[in-house]
Design brief:
The protein is of the alpha+beta class and 110 residues long. The protein has a domain of 72 residues. It is built from 2 helices and 5 strands, in the order ββαβββα. The strands form 2 sheets. It has a 3-stranded antiparallel beta sheet, with no helix packed on it. It is globular, with a radius of gyration of 17 Å.
Length: 110
């Protein structure tokens, strides 16, 4: 499996593309990100703009979803089933929980 070098840590607070061929600020894209990428089971993540997502797709990654408001929130977790980030206790997390099938009286999902 081919995985990219993750390079230096970049904050996702501004949700900007982190593509940087030389791993320096001088070559970092910094365009608005549209994709949030999960590179590994340790939830190493990155952000990509539409121009650089095809380059990211040439590497192995675990999951991706469109950038959302919870992606850079403290305490956010990756929702693999919902293809998004969620913060426990938020309306979005409650909605995700409500979308789960309810167990039937006979023990299966209804």
């Amino acid at each position: 499996m081919i995985t990219p070098s993750l390079g230096r840590f970049l904050t996702s607070a501004s949700q900007r593309c982190g593509f940087s061929p030389d791993d320096t600020d001088a070559t970092t894209c910094f365009e608005p990100a549209t994709w949030h990428i999960c590179w590994s089971t340790e939830i190493d993540t990155g952000l990509a703009c539409p121009k650089h997502m095809p380059i990211a797709q040439s590497f192995a990654y675990l999951d991706r979803h469109e950038v959302g408001s919870d992606c850079d929130m403290p305490g956010a977790s990756w929702d693999f089933d919902g293809k998004r980030c969620i913060v426990a206790g938020t309306e979005q997390a409650a909605t995700r929980h409500a979308e789960q099938p309810l167990p039937s009286a006979l023990g299966g999902a209804s």
